[in-house]
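Kindly review this protein for my students:
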Amino acid sequence: MTAETDACVIAAGAMTGTSLDGIDAAVVEINENTQPPSARLLAHAAAPLGECAETLRALASGAPCTASEIVTARRLLSDQTAHVIQSALGARQVVFVAVHGQTVLHAPPDSWQLIDATRIATTLQCPVASNLRGGDLAAGGQGAPITPLADRALFAAPHPRAIINLGGFCNITWIPAAETLDHVKGCDVCPCNLLLNQAARMTLGTDHDVNGSVAAEGTPDAELVASLRKVLSLPTTSGRSLGSGDEASEWLLAPPANAASTASLLASMAEAIGSVIGEALTQYPANEAILAGGGCYHAPLVSAIERASSMPVRRSSELGIPVEAREAACVAILASMDRQGQATTTPDVTGRGELIAGMEWCAPIDKVRP
């Protein structure tokens, strides 16, 4: 198949999430003739952030960084992103690529996704879309969550579904049954992997609790669970997206947390986060919940969601979309919608007014823009 036919285009998307755990790239075949568009995943690749990780983590945490450190991290991240996209593509040709970049600040109306799309366009020799949140923010929106309309293209079914992203922050997309696809909903819920990973660094000296194995050895402490649930439940009623300053990091320094064993602390955190997520599912109708994101590998977290949920819960991998690939695939789908002049967010999700601007596109000098 060529990169573009009368009905379909082949595109690639790349995502580096707030968990700062690596870069994912996905190759997607998108049918742009259907409304809404439909899509299927063709390939996926992943790689660590590499040498830029330390600077990106410092930036995201608000630590001071020099201009030299920032621009070097941007270059290294962009080169690594292009490399991962090339790995996913193999011999395939694409019409365009979309890159999200690394979120180092999200505090609407300000949001910063660090990436050099021009460098990636030159390396891959194709048009590249970036600044995916910019149009929504310019129109007065929160700029997040941005995936709901793309989730519709990947996960639409005859029955309503909820798509749960277990990333640095958790967000949920509610997709109605196929005949009412225009009424997609979505919202941020609470910090997820960001908080779990911070706890692992503090108590285990590792980037994360692999598969939640230490948490699985502990027993949740009722006082700790209730304390963290109170903190996590506050942002969900604020009507805004979550970002910088919403990580709930201060909770880890509170006396109740210090009184727990490591296993009990991590088990309590998984129980609190999972129960808040499971209960959030009840906001809109759904017949099943589909999990995606790195948190899918945290067994106690997933178990807590299942216990708190009133519906069957399964992973996106069971539908042919690896849990690591969903966001990268969504990035490509959103760029497809943007190049067709379609809005990529809705007022119901991000709170924006009229969408007056879209993404930023760049192309190698000898290439035409899409």
